[in-house]
Every structure is written in C-alpha cells, then in structure tokens.
C-alpha cells in the first residue's frame, strides 16, 4: 500500500467498526483502526461472563490478531480525545494525531443513569469485560458473605438480587442468576439455602422485552416467574444506595443491584461539535455522515438513525454490522465516482434467552418461543463467534451447563481477597 | 455429622489443604476449610495464564464446588488474622473465631524480594491469578506501546523482557515469552518486528534449573538460547527500577521485568509465635506438628521439612500433597489411638517445560528431555487438572498453540483502558 492511498481512520473495533474493515478488503485504501481496548468483544454473550457461565477469553479477541492477514490495516491501542474536522485529523491521548481522508466513528455506548450517576457504584452496568467480572464478583461474594452471616436481615439482603431494566440484557441476567441460585449453587453451601435467594426484575415500562411482540413478552414474563424471578412492571426506580433500591413506594434491601436500564452514546458528538439526541447519539444524514462533512461517518450505537418507516434503528449488533457494510460500500463507490444511496436498515429479528433452555425469537413474519427457539439462539450465537477454538470451547461450556448445571467461571478475581476488603480504594 | 465430632480446621485450599480434606473422606470428623480466595489454583500452569496461553477459569475452581459432595466439610471465604493456641481457635478478619480440635495450616508462600520490597512494583511475581493477569497485561501492553513508539531507545526498552530467577517458573516464562514474540505475534504488528524483542533470563546461581541434573540444566540453557532467550548466569540483580534492571555492572533498560527468584512463606509462624527459617517457613517436628502442640500441623510451602537424607523437601505440589495425605492418615490413626510414624518424603521427579515443544524430566533413575518429555509433561498436567471439561478445554488450547501458534487469552483487562493510564492509582 502506498502512503498516498486514501486513508480511512476507524475509531472503535466493535461490530460496526470491524465490519467496515472486513468489507473494505481489497479496496484501494489504507486503514487505521483505533480502539481504547486491545480486544473486540462479543457483547451479546457478555451477560454469560457476568453470571459465571463463560470465561472472558471465550467472547473477546485481540483486534490486531483478527486483522493479522490485512497488511492494509494498522491497529492502534489508543484513546481518542477529539477530532479536528478542518485539519481532518483525530487527536490521541499521547498528544499525537492521526490524519484521515475518511473518518468512521463507531465508538459505541455506555450504560447511563439518566442524570443519576451517583447510582453507578451501587448498581453497576454491563458493557465491558471489566463490568462483567465486577458483576460476577459481586454476585459470588454476596453468596459467600451470606454463608458467613448470622443476622437474619442482613443475610436476606445478601441473598437479594435486583436487576433494573427488563430489556434482553435484564431478562437474560435475571433468568441466569435465578438458575445459578436454584440449580448450580445449592449443594455447595452448608449454612444457607441458595434456593431462597430472591431475584427481582424491575421495569419502569409495562412489559418485559418491550421490543418484542406482546405475546412473546407475556411468555417471557411467565417463564421468568416459573424460574423464580419476581417481575415488577410499571414501577420506576427512584434510588440506588448501599442498602438497596427504592422503587414505587417500596424500599428493598439488596446487596447486589445490576443496572440494565439505559445507555448513553460515547462522546463522539462532543468531539465533532454536532447535534445529539437525548441519549447522546449523533444525528446523522441519510448516508450516515454528519451535516457538511461527507467524509465523516458515524455508525452503530453512537449514531441516531431512522429506518425507512421512521422508527429508530435499534442498538444491536446486526444493525451496527449493516451500517459498517453500508459505509464500506459507500466509500468504495465514491472512490469510483459513483453516487451514494441512503442507508436502509433491514430488521432480521430479535432474540432473547430466558435461562438455559428457553428463548423468544421475533422474526416479524414468525414468532418462536421455548426450547426450539433456545436451540436456534444457541446455534446462531456459536456461528457468529469468531474462531473454531472459541466455538468448540463455548459449546463445551454450554453442554456442561445444560447437562450438569456446572458453570466453569465461578472465580472471584480482581477484587481484594477476603479480609482485605476494608483497605480503602475504589479499585475494582 | 454431630456437632461434637472431632473438628478439624484447615487453613488454605492449595494442594496440601485439599489433599488433607480428600484423604479424610469418611473419617469421624467435621472439617472447616478456610481460604482468602474462593478458588483452588493449579499453580504449575499459572505461567500459561501470564503468557496468554490459558484462561484463568481453566486452572482455577471454586473450592466449595470441589467439595460440594462432602456434607462433612464447610467452606469459608475468610482471611485468618491469628491463632490462639491455648484457646484452640483461629481468629478471622470479621472478628469471629473458629474453634478447632486439630488445626492444619497450609497457607502457602508469596514471592519474596530478599529485603528489597521496593522492587515489587517494577518486578511483579507470579503466585495468584491476579499476578498472572497483571503480568499478562504488562507483556501485551509493552508490545502495544512499542507499536506506537517512534523513539528508537524507548522502543527497544519496551521490547525488552527480563525474567529474574531461572527455576522452573523463570525458565517456563522466558521460553514462552520468546515464543510469543517469535511465533505468535509477528504478523499482528505493522510498525515493529516482534522477533527483535529481547528476552533475558538472569540467574544469580551458576545454572538454570539448579534442582535438576547438570546435563538437563545444560540442555535447558541451550534450548532456551535456541528459542532466542539470552541466559545470564552467575550475576545477582542489584536493583529494579521503573527504567529497568541493574545486574552485575550492567544497566538494562526494560519495560517488563518479572520476578521468579524467591518465595517467602505466609505469616503462619507469626500467628503461632514459633521459630521460622530464613524464608519464613515454620520449623516443624518429624510429624509436621509444631513443638508442644501436637494438634497443630503445618504443611506445604509454609513448613520447613527435611527429607530422610536431610535435604529440604522442595516447595512443589507433589510434596504438599504427600504431606496432606500424611496429616490425614495421622489424624485418623490418632482417633483410633494408634502411634504415629514420622513423615517421609518420596521424590517422584522434577519437570519443567521450555517453550511449547520441549521439556526436561528428572526422575532420578531416568532423565528425559526434548519432545518426548514434553508429551509426558503435557499428559501429566492434563491428568492432574480437575474436571473433564477443563481437561478438554486445556487440551484444545494446547492443540491450537501447538499447531497454529494461536494463544487464546491475549486480553488486556483489569487495568485502565488506553489513555486512562495517567489517572494516578496503583490499582492493578
């Protein structure tokens, strides 16, 4: 590749960013992909790391390794601090800059607390591998502490798990924690009966899985209740503290609270100095560029995009991938001097699992639920994992969970060892 | 189990502690096993986590899960703060106490800096899962930073890896890092040639693997050199700083330094107020108890034990296991009123690997080296892993490394994302 080839800088190696790179294979361009982390993360299975079912390395891959066969691509582990639109360069954390001819921002989103950032320490969200190991540690430590606790009230609080938000992530977390308590752990403890643990799923809206057909929502709620999850609908949470959760007019003592209620886009809109919607997403044109700068694309969870019917495109992996493909094709077309067509989102369907044997799938034209849907869900996710080794490894883990209720990753790490907990420091 | 049965408290769920529990199956006793961590760790493979070859969950298991079928055993996640020998109770971090009839201390060892604790931040050691992910992060971040570094000197320092101490752990780390740089990583980077990385193994003594036969030591040294490791023998390290290492009259600029030179026993001797050797190990009687207290056993890396020939018993897993078996048999014998025989260590052999295809094995009566020894080493370690799933999973990983040079766990986690590195805090 010559140094004078069209240079594309892609920020973010999630589904959108990586798909852009893949689709540009063979194009007459140079690519630099920048990410703050060294790994691409398969977020749809992140809740399984948080619930001790999978290991971190089974759902994350070093970005530069994924792109090792692409001499046209340079991978940088770096944090972007801003974009200079006029000079056409990205500013990096070490003070250096990366000049671009075309810029693709695919920096994703973080969980958001709707103006209540003070809730975060008590109700961590789930977006990164570190988030997942933090939540895993909290869940496992709660059971450990309950085993040692003699005070009845405190023990009950330790055995109360609250999940806020009943989208797919909230439903998957609630179902899996309930199974952990009811199937995986009971024989391991002597002083407590882990089956007595309460798992409470709180949702401000009127139903779980609001993005799905109403029948599937109802089925999901009933399935969760059958697993032992208490589902509280139509009650917004009004506070998260060290003691637990306030919702409606109730006060619930809970040692473990997990936030699955909302996301906020990365600060790309600030970098660009352009309009953002309430969730911080950049409002883009029909071709996913920002007004006045056709050389700057914003895609995935960072962008507010409408589908042909005027509804917002959901923040899911297939949508980000479609946008990545569109951006790559648009860049190729431009280099050939072709006119671009607007982006059109095609919704293939929505999937969510409820525990280890049930799922709901809403393809629009057909709706599936139950064990058969779970098998489709499982096969689809194994198919989309990267690498034969990971597919085998995840399949092996699921087989063990399915047949023996053994979860392989019940490790309390990263935190302090027991007894060091007093030592100050918010290090997680 | 009745509350009045003989109560054994075991502190530490390493090889020694767990073996004691296993060997006491069916004995007329109650057992409480206490550990600061929730997992038993297969330490012989810890270096493979540190070098991105295995995931943490493949070599660690929740203690209470391992003992789920033993209703006579209670597992506590707790930190011991002291022992009251007269009242016969162990003091725990939460202020509570655990009374015992027999106490077994099997609390292991940490790496030690021989009076230079200020070296630790610059030269981390390898004893826990957190140590391993810390070292893995440092190694991987060094390559990432080198890829972005334009200054030739700083880049060279980033690509210099120093391992201090040429026992089995040091040899295994050096060999694996050399392979990482020479086989696994080259195609993943664009600006650096990872094959130019220097891996330097520094040893104060006159040979590598001093515990092995001299022929095997020489073979290991030559094999390491063939892998590209620079072996420096007979030179003690005189300093570790943020810039690198001082040894002999040399000053070596290195971003990554790993300590594999010495261990210090856990503070069991202080808890007991008894004599310890230079490495902090409790000096025990022939029956592994402390003087005047036949009800207190100290085993594994925490104890200084001599074998029948008067040589110190090595700090390896098989030795700890033999001691665990001995203690369990001794307790059983006492409950039957039998006299106890002294502990006799039987050395089965020493093993060490050099990279992914060579090993040395010193059985005493026969010495093996090369690829055949590696296969024996690999099969032995897979055999000793706990659980069918883990055996399959580790075998799968090794197959991939062996045939494709792909290492599955190249994740930079736990630390800050790039660009957040400046943010103070020694959180690791």
Structural summary, described in words:
Two copies of one chain form a homodimer. By secondary structure, chain A is α/β, with parallel strands linked by helices. Helix content of chain A is 31%, strand content 24%. The first copy, chain A, has eleven helices and 25 strands. In chain A, helix 1 (15-23) runs parallel beside helix 9 (317-335) and helix 4 packs antiparallel against helix 5. At the A-B interface, strand 5, helix 4 and helix 11 of A face strand 5, helix 4 and helix 11 of B.
How does the overall form of chain A come out from the CA principal axes? globular
Helix content of chain A: 25-40%
Question: Strand-residue fraction of chain A?
Answer: 15-25%
> What's the overall average pLDDT of chain A, rounded?
91
Topology, number of strands of chain A: 25
Radius of gyration of chain A: 22 Å
Q: In angstroms, what separates the terminal alpha carbons of chain A?
A: 43 Å
Spans of at least 5 consecutive residues with low confidence of chain A:
416-428
User: How are the strands of the biggest sheet of chain A laid out side by side?
Assistant: 5-2-1-9-21-20
Q: Give the assembly state of these chains.
A: homodimer
The chain pair with the largest interface is: A-B, 63 and 64 residues
Number of helices of chain A: 11
Question: What structural category arises from helix and sheet content of chain A?
Answer: alpha/beta
User: Biggest β-sheet of chain A, characterized?
Assistant: 6 strands, mixed
């Amino acid at each position: 590749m010559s140094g004078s080839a069209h240079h594309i800088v892609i920020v973010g190696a999630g589904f959108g960013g990586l798909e852009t790179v893949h689709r540009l294979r063979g194009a007459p361009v140079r690519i630099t992909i920048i990410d703050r982390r060294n790994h691409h993360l398969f977020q749809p299975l992140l809740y399984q790391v948080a619930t001790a079912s999978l290991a971190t390395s089974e759902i994350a891959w070093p970005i530069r390794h994924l792109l090792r066969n692409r001499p046209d691509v340079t991978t940088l582990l770096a944090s972007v601090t801003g974009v200079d639109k006029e000079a056409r360069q990205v500013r990096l954390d070490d003070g250096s800059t990366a000049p671009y001819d075309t810029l693709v921002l695919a920096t994703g989103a973080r969980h958001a607390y709707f103006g209540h950032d003070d809730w975060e320490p008590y109700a961590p969200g789930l977006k990164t591998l570190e988030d997942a190991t933090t939540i895993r540690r909290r869940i496992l430590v709660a059971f450990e502490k309950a085993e040692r606790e003699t005070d009845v009230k405190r023990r009950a609080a330790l055995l109360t798990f609250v999940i806020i938000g009943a989208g797919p992530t909230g439903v998957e977390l609630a179902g899996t924690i309930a199974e952990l308590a009811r199937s995986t752990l009971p024989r391991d403890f002597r002083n407590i009966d882990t089956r007595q643990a309460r798992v409470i799923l709180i949702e401000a809206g009127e139903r779980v899985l609001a993005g799905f057909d109403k029948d599937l929502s109802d089925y999901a709620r009933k399935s969760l209740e059958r697993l032992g999850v208490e589902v509280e609908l139509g009650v917004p949470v009004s506070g998260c503290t060290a003691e637990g959760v306030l919702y409606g007019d109730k006060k619930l003592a809970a040692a473990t609270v997990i936030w699955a209620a909302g996301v906020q886009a990365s600060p790309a809109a600030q970098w660009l100095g352009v309009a953002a919607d309430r969730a911080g997403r950049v409002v883009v044109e029909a071709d996913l560029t920002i007004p006045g700068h056709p050389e700057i694309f914003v895609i995935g969870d960072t962008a507010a995009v409408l589908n042909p019917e005027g509804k917002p495109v959901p923040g899911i992996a297939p949508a980000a991938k479609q946008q990545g493909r569109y951006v790559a094709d648009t860049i190729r077309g431009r280099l050939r001097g072709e006119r671009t067509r607007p982006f059109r989102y095609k919704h293939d369907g929505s999937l969510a699992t409820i525990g280890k044997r049930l799922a709901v799938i809403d393809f629009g034209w057909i709706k599936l639920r139950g064990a058969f849907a779970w098998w489709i869900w499982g096969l689809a996710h194994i198919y989309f994992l990267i690498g034969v080794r990971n597919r085998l490894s995840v399949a092996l883990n699921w087989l063990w969970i399915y047949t023996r209720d053994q979860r392989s990753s019940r490790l309390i790490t990263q935190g302090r060892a027991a007894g060091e907990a007093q030592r100050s420091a918010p290090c997680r």
